[in-house]
Specification:
single chain, Rossmann fold, ten-stranded mixed sheet, binds 1,6-di-O-phosphono-beta-D-fructofuranose
Length: 551
């Protein structure tokens, strides 16, 4: 492999030794807790997962030296990039080698399709060392192929037999881990000696529960976006002439937007889950923004920041209905795909929608309406990262302010700038928290594998304490599942964690937002991620985690 050219920071980070929980530093013993139940729909989930349902929680503690059998393991990166993915692989590699130096690690290339299409490399020490503490998923690549057909599972088993692989680690979000669990159950039912272990990844932060405190990558991504928001706020406060509308990634849940608000204290922040709970229309959302802009203008403050979650559009009931109808209408629609111009496509869609949704579609600016009809993702869903909600809101807010100006209610000046932060944070050099957390998750996965476990997700808890006190173990994936309607059918899936309006992070935000809207000096400027220096500067977990833990 050709060595990469590295920056001084990259060279320094290559030498960083991630912190591990004390329990993983030497010999390990496995402790089993009580049997588990799924979060809901217990009877259905139990029936679907007879081999992997009800397994106990697992924690690791310091123990006596043991001899573990040799294992060949395969690893897959699934879905969107998240800082720390490389360190999961490094932790997994180091753990496997520590438990038995004859263990081998293979990486399936380009995501889950690598398993099905038999694309792989052996991950040697030389390769792994090049990627320690780096961002990105480029060590083996990632992809969004869904593993959900028996044929795919059988192809996977075929390559495992060929390479003598007896365990697969799937590093992914809620959907990928759901598929990991189905795969574990399938192999168990067929008597295939292949274990499957999941790892909680996604910058979106929506794969979390009682046992999984946070998904990896959320910490780094939010710190990168908050730095940028802070910089923009300092600029806004210096020039005092622009309103910045900033859309933040997070396909569904608003965790990223909320965390960034907690870190930077913007003037306005929209939380999709609250919009849905209050049954707000797009005009209501616009009216709420306008109120703050008018109020600030009355005090001579014609500038500010607005944070907008990427998924907002799907949480507005009327838009949700429109998107659902479009998803059905456009799935494999050759007639639509054959149309050449945007105008033809627009006319076609208008003619096919129900009268109520056709009106919503008609009222949208043409550009946004077009974005709603673009290609779907492999799950058939609209790709919200391509919908410029921030521009939609700017257009609507400007229109409303012009009306208020004409009525003499608004006397300010509205100049706006739009931003979208998503890809900027997904491959950042992992923060110390993510570097340590991911290394520990990978290391934990190696122990779960050596102990012969399957259908578990690697879990590292107590993450607001110093890393030495973190609790490592495994959680049965079935424990996180419930039944949900997907494409017209009831399916077992990991329950997605949306922002809880009764949770401490949202409550803190709600208690402070009026102050942040009004005051000139509420902004926080978090600055860039620090890797070296005092622990209060370098090792802090997210505000979300701290508030959830009552800190
Ligand atoms: P995962 O759920 O796979 O981690 O990806 C999340 C995400 O980063 C979303 O925030 C965003 O909407 C989406 O990926 C973008 O997808 P793509 O990488 O395909 O552009």
């Amino acid at each position: 492999m050709k060595p990469m050219t590295k920056s001084p920071l990259q060279i320094a980070r290559a030498g960083y030794q991630p912190k591990l929980p004390n329990a993983l530093k030497g010999n390990v013993v496995l402790k089993e807790g009580a049997a588990t139940e799924s979060v809901a729909d217990q009877d259905d989930i139990k029936k679907l997962f007879p081999n992997t349902y009800g397994m106990p929680l697992i924690t690791f503690e310091p123990g006596e030296k043991r001899n573990y059998p040799v294992k060949n393991v395969g690893v897959i990166l699934s879905g969107g990039q998240a800082p720390g993915g490389h360190n999961v692989i490094c932790g997994l590699f180091d753990g496997l080698k520590a438990l038995n130096p004859a263990n081998k690690l293979y990486g399936f290339l380009g995501g889950p399709s690598g398993l099905v299409d038999h694309q792989y490399i052996e991950l040697t020490k030389e390769i792994v060392d090049e990627y320690r503490n780096t961002g990105g998923f480029d060590i083996i690549g990632s992809g969004r192929t869904k593993l959900e057909e028996a044929e795919q599972y059988d192809k996977g088993a075929e390559i495992c037999h060929k390479l003598d692989i007896s365990a697969i680690v799937i590093i992914g979000g809620d959907d990928s881990n759901t598929n990991a669990c189905v795969l574990a159950e399938y192999y168990a039912q067929k008597g295939e000696p292949i274990q499957v272990i999941g790892c909680p990844k996604t910058i979106d932060g929506d794969l979390k529960n009682e046992m999984i405190e946070t998904s990896f990558g959320f910490d780094t991504a939010c710190k990168v976006y908050s730095e940028l928001i802070g910089n923009i706020q300092r600029d806004a406060n210096s020039a005092k002439k622009y309103w910045h509308f900033i859309r933040l990634m997070g396909r569904s849940a608003s965790h990223i937007t909320l965390e960034c608000a907690l870190q930077s204290q913007p003037n306005i922040c929209i939380i999709s889950e609250e919009v849905e709970a209050n049954n707000l229309t797009l005009s209501d959302v616009v009216e709420n923004i306008v109120k703050v802009i008018v109020h600030r203008a009355d005090h001579g403050l014609n500038f500010g920041t607005v944070l907008i979650p990427e998924g907002l559009i799907e949480f507005i009931p009327a838009m949700k209905k429109l998107i659902a109808e479009l998803n059905d209408l456009l799935a494999h629609n050759d007639d639509f795909n054959a149309l050449e111009t945007d105008d033809e496509k627009r006319q076609y869609v208008k003619g096919m929608l129900s009268p109520e949704t056709a009106q919503v579609y008609r009222d949208l600016p043409k550009g946004i309406a077009r974005q709603l009809t673009l290609d779907r993702d492999p799950h058939g869903n609209v790709q919200v990262s391509l919908i410029e909600t921030e521009k939609l809101l700017i257009e609507m807010v400007a229109k409303r302010l012009a009306q208020l100006k004409a009525q003499g209610v608004y006397k300010g000046k509205f100049s706006s700038i739009n931003h979208f932060f998503g890809y900027e944070g997904r491959c950042a050099i992992p923060s110390n928290f993510d570097a340590d957390y991911t290394y520990s998750l990978g290391y934990t996965a190696s122990v779960l594998i050596s102990e012969g476990k399957t259908g578990y997700m690697s879990s590292v808890r107590n993450t607001t304490a110093p890393a030495a006190e973190w609790i490592a173990g495994g959680v049965p994936i079935t424990m996180m599942m419930n039944m949900e309607r997907r494409h017209g059918k009831m399916k077992p899936v990991i329950q997605k964690a949306l922002v809880r309006l009764d949770g401490a992070p949202f409550k803190f935000f709600a208690a402070n937002r009026e102050k942040w809207a009004d005051e000139e000096m509420s902004y926080i400027y978090p600055g860039p991620i620090q890797y070296y220096g005092p622990t209060e500067v370098c090792d802090q977990p997210t505000k979300t985690l701290q508030l959830e833990k009552g800190l």
